[in-house]
Amino acid sequence: MQELEIVRGTTCPLHIALSGEDGADYVLAEGAVLLFGIRHVLGTETVLVKKSTASDEGGYVFDIRPEDTVDLTPGDYKYTVNMQTGNDFYPVIKLADLKIIDAITKKGDGE
Question: Distance (Å, rounded) from C-alpha 95 to C-alpha 37?
Fold first, then answer.
C-alpha cells in the first residue's frame, strides 16, 4: 500500500476501493464496517485516530476531520484498515506508512 500523507489539522477524505479475488468491486455485507486506525509506534495499543465507514457509493470514504490530527506531532505513523463483521475482524490493509506533515499556512494567516 502506498504511503499516505496528511497535513496536520486539515480535512482529508480517504477513499478506499475494495475488490474481490476476481478483481470485481466488493460490497460490504449488511452490518459490516471498515475501520481505519492510526498508531504512532508499531506494537503500541494506543490508537490515536479511529474512524469507521459503511458507505458503498463508489467505494468507501473515511472522513478525517481537522480535530482528528491537529494535536498529532508531525512525523511517521502507521495505519491499518480492517473489516468488521459481527465480532470478526479481517485485515484489508495490514500495516502501511502514514506521514503527518505540518501545514505551511495556518488558520488566520490571511487575516
Answer: 10
